[in-house]
Structure prediction request, 263 residues.
Amino acid sequence: MLKKKLFLFSLFILLIFGLLTFQSIKGKSRFIDTALYPLTLIEQGTTAVIHGIENTFNAYIMIAGKEEENIKLLEKIHKLDQEKHDLLEVRLENERLKKILKLKTEKRNYVTTASVFARDPTNWFQSLWINKGIQSGIAKNMVAVTPLGPVGNVRRVLQNSANITLITDVNSSVSVRLQPSRIEGILHGSGEDSCFLQYISKEIEVKVGEKVITSGLDGIYPKGLMIGHVTSVRKEDAEIFQVIGVEPVQNLNSVEEVVILKK
Prediction:
């Protein structure tokens, strides 16, 4: 059976070869075109497949090339973004240090400048840690300030670090006075981001926006430091004193460096 199939296939090939030879000698004929039609279809189909493969391959090469180019462009963009970020950080740090340097030259009670490296992770205490301590001349109850105003005072000091209790802590108290009227009171922390001023008589007219400064009477904070603004005033019938809200001038959540002052 196999020999028979091979014989028929060989005969078919010889027939086709003969027809092609005859066509080349005599020219085209309808009969030969009809006989060769299936082969023509096969040839056209094969050619189409080959062209399709070539087009797909070329398209892949183009896409692969573009993808590699896009990856390089994205890497360059990320690098430029990082450089821009680094330059911005350097500029902001230089601006802060320039202001602190000015503060250093203005304050005769200057001790040292320190950086904040940690904050209390809970909501129970408003405090932060700085990277200098006893070796830098820092002692308990010294005051931490920024060019804007007071941050807090030193409650615990180690050899190379110190803990600062912020003025917004519930255990903090600062002797202050209202700048326009010179009326004195005690500033306490709310335990969040604000303070409240106590012991101001309801007979005293206090307005929102008034400046609150340190009085120096507590023996800790130097006199005359700008500490905040009045944000609310409430007089309750059953109370002797007013309830006065105060917002610190320094956003304590953004402090990165502090200057330590002695009394």
User: Anything to note?
Assistant: The longest helix spans residues 30-106. The chain has two domains: 31-106, 111-263. Residues 60 and 66 are 10 Å apart (CA to CA). Confidence is low (pLDDT under 50) at residues 26-33.
